[in-house]
Design brief:
Residues 3-57 form the HTH lacI-type domain. One of its GO terms (molecular function) is transcription cis-regulatory region binding. The chain is of the alpha/beta class. It has 3 domains: 5-48, lambda repressor-like DNA-binding domains (434 Repressor (Amino-terminal Domain), Orthogonal Bundle); 62-158 and 292-319, 3-Layer(aba) Sandwich (Rossmann fold), CATH 3.40.50; 160-290, Response regulator (Rossmann fold, 3-Layer(aba) Sandwich), CATH 3.40.50.2300. The chain has helices at residues 5-12, 16-23, 31-43, 50-57, 76-87, 128-136, 160-173, 189-204, 221-232, 246-258, 292-307; strands at 62-67, 95-100, 117-121, 141-144, 154-158, 179-183, 214-216, 240-243, 268-270, 287-289, 315-319, 322-324.
């Protein structure tokens, strides 16, 4: 027979309400009583009944982790880093439910009876109706990855524009002037931010921008492969390519080798994200480390924090990218001087 709160209450000579509050670390119970009750619970190997607890406290003990889409445009590395980061912060009493917004025809089932809090890895403006619905239902919400104008929300993002600026700048400083970019999924905010950083670097260093060097991809390896084949087949191929994520860079590297060329001897390639495989490609991929793990951990911690508060203020948190130079960029002119 399992131990209940009433059993602990009898031994502690307090009410079962006091036991419940003590085990939930309520500020209404003094520290001495908390320590006494928790010691008895440990001695009896008490295991909380979260189903019963959820009815009493009107909590579901479920946290939702939502993506714009899991099957379209979300790379395996990105998905893994996000889930691992968030999961590492979630207390064992909570269940983590992972879904794509595009799994839902409507949001009727997204309510405060099913979710105590929601983390959204937002990749598109198309997520806005979902965000408005969650806010309207009063569910604590943290939005990751996409910058929002709404000041009442917790918004944690990486500085993608700065990241692609550094990537393009590195190529320019290594003597490259014919530089292309393979863009990501068109409707994703990250695609625009990364292109903006790339363009800003070229303009700042007076490097020509060629329209034929701006190729659309969709964040998949296959799209990176196809885009690179398109660039190689131009009458004048670029000497360097910035790929808007590492998956496309991996595809681009294969396309170069399949065309009888070499990386970086013939074409230099820079990625974005620093997924696990980047260090082990041939050659090792120069890339921008996008701290998805850090963003996800920060998001999980922040959600737990606001779930335990009556009121909270909106906040925008930026987490910096890091440029990582490896072996996929050739220095065309070691004496190249940038003023």
């Amino acid at each position: 027979m399992s131990i209940t709160i009433k059993d602990i209450a009898k031994l502690a000579n307090v009410s079962h309400t006091t036991v419940s509050r003590a085990l939930n670390n309520s500020p209404l119970i003094n520290e001495e009583t908390k320590i006494k009750i928790k010691a008895i619970a440990d001695r009896l190997n008490y295991v909380p009944n979260y189903s019963a607890k959820s009815l009493v406290l009107d909590k579901s003990y479920t946290i939702g982790l939502f993506f714009s889409s899991i099957s379209k445009g979300t790379s395996p590395g990105f998905f893994f880093d996000t889930v691992t980061g968030v999961n590492s912060t979630i207390e064992e009493k909570y269940n983590l439910v992972i879904r794509g917004i595009d799994d839902y025809k409507d949001f009727t089932n997204i309510n405060d009876k099913r979710f105590d809090g929601i983390i959204l890895m937002s990749q598109s403006d198309n997520d806005n109706p979902f965000i408005y619905h969650v806010v309207e239902k009063g569910i604590p919400l943290v939005v990751l990855d996409r910058e929002l104008d709404e000041k009442s929300l917790i918004n944690i993002i990486s500085d993608d524009k700065e990241g692609t600026f550094k990537a393009a700048e590195h190529l320019i400083k290594n003597g490259h002037k014919d530089i292309a970019i393979i863009e990501g999924k068109e409707e994703f905010k990250s695609t625009k931010r990364r292109k903006d950083g790339f363009m800003e670097a070229l303009i700042q260093y007076n490097v020509p921008v060629h329209s034929e060097y701006i190729i659309k991809g969709n964040y998949s390896m296959k799209s990176g492969y196809n885009a690179m084949r398109e660039l190689i087949n131009l009458s004048k191929s670029p000497t360097a390519v910035v790929c808007s994520n590492d998956d496309m860079a991996v595809g681009a590297i294969k396309a170069v080798f399949d065309s009888g060329l070499q990386v970086p001897k013939d074409i230099s390639i820079v990625g974005f994200d620093d997924i696990a495989v980047s260090e082990y490609t041939t050659p090792a991929l120069t890339t921008v480390k996008r701290p998805i793990g850090e963003i996800s951990i920060a998001g999980g911690k922040k959600l737990i924090e606001i779930m335990n508060k009556e009121n909270y203020k909106g906040e925008k948190i930026y987490i910096k990218t890091e440029f990582i130079a490896r072996d996929s960029v050739l220095n065309l002119n070691k004496n190249y001087d940038i003023k």
